[in-house]
Structure formats: C-alpha cells, structure tokens
Amino acid sequence: QVQLVESGGGLVQAGGSLRLSCAVSGSTRSINAIGWYRQAPGEQRELVATITSGGNTNYADSVKGRFTISRDNAKNTVYLQMNSLKPEDTAVYYCKVLTISNRYYWGQGTQVTVSS
Fold it and tell me: Is residue 17 packed enough to be buried (19+ CB in 10 Å), middle (13-18) or exposed (0-12)?
C-alpha cells in the first residue's frame, strides 16, 4: 500500500508561482514512477508531469518551460514547481503513484486557482 498527501495549492495571480508537494508513505520501494495530474471543472483529468525512479521526466506541452517536477528520495516527496502561472492552469492537482506491479494510487488533490 502507498499513501499520498498533496499540499501547496492556493490562490495566486497570473504570472505567479506555487510549489506543490506530494508526500509518499508506505511501500515506497515499490514505486516505479510518480506523476502530477490536474482536473479543471467540466474537464477530464490530464497529465501534467511525471518522474520515474531513475529520474526521467516528462511534461505536457502546455506546461513545458514553466513547470518542473522533482523528487527528494530522502524525504519521499515529489514536488511540482509551477512558474508563470496562467488562469488556464486553474484545476485540482493530483499526485499519482505507479508501482512496479502496475498498481495505481491517487492522492486527495489540492486546489490551484490562478486569477487574471
């Protein structure tokens, strides 16, 4: 079992920055990759960024150059640094873990609101 707790969301003006955190506990040695996803009202949940156990990263085109995903293995925490935020980045942001046995775990989400 893996447990995820996201934090760091909030209200920010366009052009501002936020850093989201995803604290992971439980069977952390079984983790293959961790990702951030987001879901805006009335929209489907979409991939934002992922990072593998080997440190490889992947980003949605809409956030490339503005968002950075990173991990601190000592703290079992994954971060999403979000810069140059836009109103269209407004969404609930979720952390998702993929284990080596292909099981998925989701966090509860954290709200990010970007005002224009």
Answer: exposed
In the chain, the N- to C-terminal Cα span, in Å, equals 40
71 vs 73: CA distance, rounded Å? 6
CB 12 within 8 A of CB 115: yes
Res. 26: pLDDT tops 90: no
Mean pLDDT estimate for the chain: 95
Place of tokens 């980003």: 59
Edge-first strand listing for the sheet containing 18-26: 2-7, 18-26, 77-82, 67-72
